[in-house]
Amino acid sequence: MTDKTTHFGAQTIREDEKAGKVRSLFTDVANKYDIMNDVMSMGIHRIWKEAMMDWLAPRPGQKLLDVAGGTGDVSFKFLNRAGHGHATVCDLTEGMLIEGRKRAEAEAMQDSLDWVVGDAMDLPFEDNTFDVYTISFGIRNVTRPQVALNEAYRVLRPGGRLMVLEFSQLPNPMMQKAYDLYSFNVIPRMGQMIANDRDSYQYLVESIRNFPDQDTFLGMVREAGFGNAKYRNLTMGIAALHSGWKI
């Protein structure tokens, strides 16, 4: 039990409650997760993930840890770009990993893939294990993102690369207001229509608004110890890529 509180969408809850709520939500939506990403981003998340791979530039033989890796799409892209290597998909929700294993890409790449249930704040891996750490649209669901960044630094080898893709804040206040109107009024309704699940989409929209802006999150990346940390806005800041190195 803890008296510390955190956000779960628009709700304020105890920190020790959040992981269970997140696990329950994603267990419920596991078989609709790829549709959910399409709805949340209007399909643009696929382009953003390719942009992440462009900046990351995977190299043959690298070992990737993809945290909150869900159904494995980032790991599949990484392995395709690298040519050969290894990817570990780590997710809090076993149901997401089960869905990922069903995908045709997973079967084709099974010798290069591991699927591990694990918490971003307490990773079940040794220090200095991986060359690359990615987390896409997952860190805003972590109870304490700073702890997750610290863990990322721990498990990366010296010279390892961090890459975080997350929904973010538009730098123009009027554009942000227009995007908020769309997000709060349209996305939950689309979730109801497409996946028969308004509440999950409502939470995800609310979680975006509670996440730190680009510069604040950049400070958190640096606080974890990463050097040469920087970010790039995607689609005017609807999403952002943050990069850092374990130097």
What can you tell me about this protein's structure?
- The protein is α/β, with parallel strands linked by helices.
- Helix content is 47%, strand content 23%.
- The protein contains ten helices and nine strands.
- The strands form two sheets. It has a seven-stranded mixed sheet with strand order 5-4-3-6-7-9-8, sandwiched between helices. Strands 1-2 form a two-stranded antiparallel ribbon.
- A hairpin with a 2-residue loop joins strand 1 and strand 2 (11-14).
- Helix 2 (33-41) runs antiparallel to helix 8 (173-195) and helix 8 (173-195) runs antiparallel to helix 9.
Element layout with pairings:
Blueprint: E1 5-8, E2 11-14, H1 15-29, H2 33-41, H3 45-56, E3 63-67, H4 73-82, E4 86-91, H5 94-101, H6 104-108, E5 113-117, E6 130-136, H7 145-155, E7 156-167, H8 173-195, H9 198-210, H10 214-223, E8 227-234, E9 239-245
Parallel strand pairs: 3-4, 3-6, 4-5, 6-7
Antiparallel strand pairs: 1-2, 7-9, 8-9
Helix pairs in contact: 2-8, 8-9
Enumerate the strands of the largest sheet in spatial order, edge to edge or round the barrel.
5-4-3-6-7-9-8
Tell me the Rg in angstroms: 17 Å
Strand content: 15-25%
Helical stretch tally: 10
